[in-house]
Design a protein that fits this description.
Blueprint: E1 4-13, E2 16-26, E3 31-35, H1 42-50, E4 57-62, E5 65-66, E6 77-80, H2 92-102, H3 107-121, H4 136-148, E7 154-158, H5 166-183, E8 186-191, H6 194-200, E9 203-208, E10 211-216, H7 218-223, H8 228-233, E11 240-248, E12 254-257, E13 260-263, E14 271-280, E15 285-287, E16 294-302, E17 306-313, E18 316-323, E19 333-338, E20 344-347
Parallel strand pairs: 3-8, 3-9, 6-7, 7-8
Antiparallel strand pairs: 1-2, 1-4, 4-5, 9-10, 11-14, 12-13, 14-20, 15-19, 16-17, 16-19, 17-18
Length: 365
């Protein structure tokens, strides 16, 4: 069993706190992504799981065993870095088998494992080529092969696709997920790219300022964000935010935006008169001339089958995702309606969600 459990993990560098009391579990065979902007603590968390950094406090359990203060070599993990760190004087076969050679594994076993890794990664045709002449994608496959041959309890990956161009990174995302499905190995993957996270992960831990803001499936995080940070970080374009002042009682199912009354899911708590923020995804907005919530079209971004239309309103700019066949002229006045059961409501002071529907089944740090 390769379950990874992180309990109250905390890491400080002097007065700077990099990771704040994180708690999450990676089930056996899951692909979990640590996602967030630079400096949020995701790489530090991964390095503590790997044994490359020691925590200030908390525990790390791998397969039920406490490995918090064990060295990296005692944890039975494989780490894949952003920089490939391959040996240029060796060919592909030698690079992949080198970790096993260092461990004193018999030659016959090395040959078996290297052949199997090449088959899984579909690189049998380049095994005798020098790595110095390979493309970035092939080099990444070789780096993955060097991790696979160790047959570890889990794989830890620190932005392994960061050095690739955007088009090839998209291809490698599909290959990495396919590799995971074939190996069924427990994987923790670090990235700042939400598209990578959403396309590959079984679960995502969204981090900010050393905290895990939300931990859940990509669908949960996208549809039921527990904070404005999560709602803004996930989605392209991100969620629209409309600020207003109102007092909403427990069980209330509407919010007032100027002359417009917007129906919405009930809130889970009483909210005293204060600045609140209504959140709506671009795809949950439609044009309706009868709506009292109005604005003028600022511009449109054509994306093929869909388009992003930006509308200036008294509550700020709103981006709506619509079918590309809808023609809306720049400068024209339009009415907007929201999909009521898809709305979010956040506190203006701190940005936490106050919709009851947003909390069902969502675990967050």
């Amino acid at each position: 069993m390769a379950e990874i459990r992180v309990e109250n993990l905390h890491k400080s560098f002097g007065e700077f706190v990099a990771v704040r009391n994180s708690n999450f579990t990676v089930e056996d065979g899951e692909f979990v992504v640590l996602l967030g902007p630079s400096g949020c603590g995701k790489t530090t968390t991964l390095r503590m799981i790997a044994g490359l950094e020691l925590p200030t406090s908390g525990r790390i359990l791998l397969g039920g065993n406490d490995v918090t203060f064990k060295r990296a070599g005692e944890r039975d993990i494989a780490f894949v870095f952003q920089l490939f760190a391959l040996y240029p004087h060796m060919n592909v076969r030698q690079n992949i088998g080198f970790p096993l050679k260092c461990e004193g594994v018999p030659r016959s076993e090395i040959a078996r494992r290297v052949t199997e890794a090449a088959r899984i990664l579909r690189i049998e045709h380049i095994m005798n080529k020098p790595v110095s002449g390979l493309s970035g994608g092939d080099r990444q496959r070789v780096a993955l092969g060097r991790a696979i041959v160790r047959e570890p309890m889990c794989f830890l990956m620190d932005e392994p696709l960061g050095a690739l161009d955007s088009e090839f990174r998209h291809v490698m995302c599909g290959e990495l997920r396919g590799l995971h499905n074939r190996l069924k190995a427990t994987t923790v993957y670090v990235t700042h790219d939400q598209l990578e996270a959403m396309s590959m992960a079984d679960k995502i831990a969204v981090m900010s300022g050393g905290l895990i803001e939300q931990f859940g499936s990509p669908q949960e995080i996208y549809q039921r964000p527990v904070s404005m940070f999560v709602a803004d970080f996930i989605g392209s374009p991100p969620m629209n935010f409309l600020k207003f002042e109102s007092g909403i009682a427990r069980g209330s199912a509407e919010a007032r935006l100027g002359d417009a009354v917007v129906p919405m899911p009930a809130v889970h708590e009483d909210v005293a008169p204060a600045k609140l923020v209504l959140g709506v995804r671009p795809e949950h907005i439609r044009f309706d001339d009868a709506s009292p919530l109005r604005g003028s079209v600022y511009g449109a971004e054509y994306l093929g089958t869909t388009q992003i239309i930006t509308v200036d309103t008294e509550f700020g700019q709103i981006k709506a995702r619509t079918n590309s066949h809808i023609n809306v002229a720049t400068g024209s006045h339009v009415g907007l309606r929201f999909n009521a059961d898809r709305l979010s409501l956040f506190r203006g002071d701190g940005g936490r969600a106050v919709n009851s529907a947003l909390y069902e089944g969502v675990a967050h740090g």
